[in-house]
Structures are given as structure tokens and as C-alpha cells.
User: Which sequence fits this backbone?
């Protein structure tokens, strides 16, 4: 993390791209690629006119730091089974056979509306607070039962998570969904809706993540 001095204020530049930042970057990709001022504004929280008052050397340092962070690398995106965030430990869903039907419904709703804008909500379905963890085996844990009423609030908290958490979970999630729609007795129309959702999600992933889950895999 680096710091930027603006008047009497010291601004800490995040050392990762958060989910909320990624959503803004993807929605305005051309803007951020053609005008680095918008990228600096996004990371610092400063308005465009405020950036003009910064020393040129500071701007160049911050710009180089940020450009390195927005180039998300595969090695930075390993699947996270559990993590602490704002004082709470969350775990990835680890018993898909018992996942509540409401979770699948919420997956469909969040994906049908706009999967990019709902990444944080999908993450809130995938990850829930841990209620028990085996000290001898960190992957042996239990999470809270699914509750649709808590997803939106948890999703707001997850907006500040590193986007790498989503990149890794997305490919895993797509494989789970593929298995679900293949092995569950649901209508052809429903299966096609899920496949369209998966294709939409695949398109917003970076190129390295797309290679892990190809369109042929999704559509086979």
C-alpha cells in the first residue's frame, strides 16, 4: 500500500482492486483505459479537479502503482475456502447437495438481472459466516444455513473484497452449476436459462480465467 499526500490529508491507496472498483472499471472500460485520471480518481476518491493540484511526481508514482494492480494475474486468484473480512470469518459453501432451493433461485435472479453488478451478491450466496471450524483441518468447517434475507446486507460488506476472490470462485461456481443442471431433473427451458447466465458470467472474466472454463465446457 502507498500513501498520497493531498493538502493536510494522507490518502491510502488500496493495494488491490475491490469488487466495487472492478464493477466500475468494467462498466466504463474505455473511459478508464483512455484517461488515467479517472483511474486515479477511482482509487483515491479525489475528484477530477482535485487531481490537478497534486505534484506531478506523486501522480506518476500513483499511476504506476495502480496500473500494476488492475492487471489481475492468475497466480493472485487461487480459490479461497475461508477468509476474515471486517472481523467475521466467512467460508465457501461446502455442501452443495444440501444447498437450499432459495440459494439457486437467488443465483438465477442475480445473474439474470446483471451478473457484473451483482458479483458481490453472488459472493454473499457462495460465502457465509463460519459457525464451526476443525482446528486440525481448516477445510473442515460449517457455515450458517442459507437465508435469503441476509444476502443483500452481506453483499454490501463484500463490495470491498478483492476481486481476485470472485475470479477464483467464479470458475469453481460455473463447474458446480454445470453439474447441477446436468444431474438435476429440471426443464429444458430452465437449463437454457442457466447456460445463458453462465455465458454472461464467463464474458466478464479476464482472459486467463476464461481459459479455465471454456465456452465449450459451459455449452456442451
Assistant:
Amino acid at each position: 500500500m502507498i500513501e498520497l499526500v493531498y493538502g493536510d490529508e494522507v490518502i491510502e491507496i488500496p493495494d488491490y482492486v475491490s469488487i466495487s472498483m472492478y464493477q466500475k472499471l468494467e462498466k466504463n472500460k474505455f473511459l478508464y483505459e483512455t484517461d488515467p485520471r479517472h483511474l486515479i480518481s477511482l482509487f483515491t476518491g479525489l475528484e477530477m479537479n482535485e487531481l490537478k493540484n497534486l505534484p506531478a511526481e506523486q501522480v506518476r508514482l500513483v499511476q504506476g502503482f495502480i496500473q500494476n494492480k488492475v492487471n489481475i494475474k492468475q497466480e493472485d486468484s487461487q480459490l479461497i475456502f475461508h477468509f476474515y473480512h471486517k472481523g467475521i470469518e466467512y467460508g465457501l459453501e461446502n455442501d452443495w447437495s444440501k444447498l437450499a432451493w432459495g440459494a439457486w433461485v437467488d443465483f438465477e435472479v442475480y445473474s439474470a438481472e446483471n451478473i457484473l453488478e451483482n458479483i458481490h451478491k453472488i459472493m454473499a450466496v457462495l460465502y457465509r459466516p463460519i459457525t464451526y471450524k476443525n482446528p486440525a483441518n481448516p477445510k473442515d468447517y460449517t457455515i450458517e444455513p442459507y437465508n435469503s434475507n441476509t444476502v443483500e446486507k452481506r453483499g454490501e460488506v463484500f463490495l470491498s473484497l478483492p476481486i481476485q476472490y470472485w475470479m477464483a470462485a467464479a470458475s469453481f461456481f460455473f463447474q458446480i452449476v454445470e453439474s447441477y443442471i446436468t444431474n438435476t431433473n429440471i426443464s429444458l427451458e430452465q437449463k437454457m436459462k442457466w447456460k445463458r447466465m453462465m455465458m454472461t458470467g464467463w464474458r466478464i472474466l479476464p482472459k486467463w480465467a476464461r481459459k479455465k472454463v471454456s465456452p465449450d465446457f459451459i455449452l456442451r
User: Anything to note?
Assistant: Residues 2-71 form one domain. The longest helix spans residues 163-183. Confidence is low (pLDDT under 50) at residues 212-220. Strands lie at 2-6, 9-13, 82-85, 88-92, 127-133, 141-143.
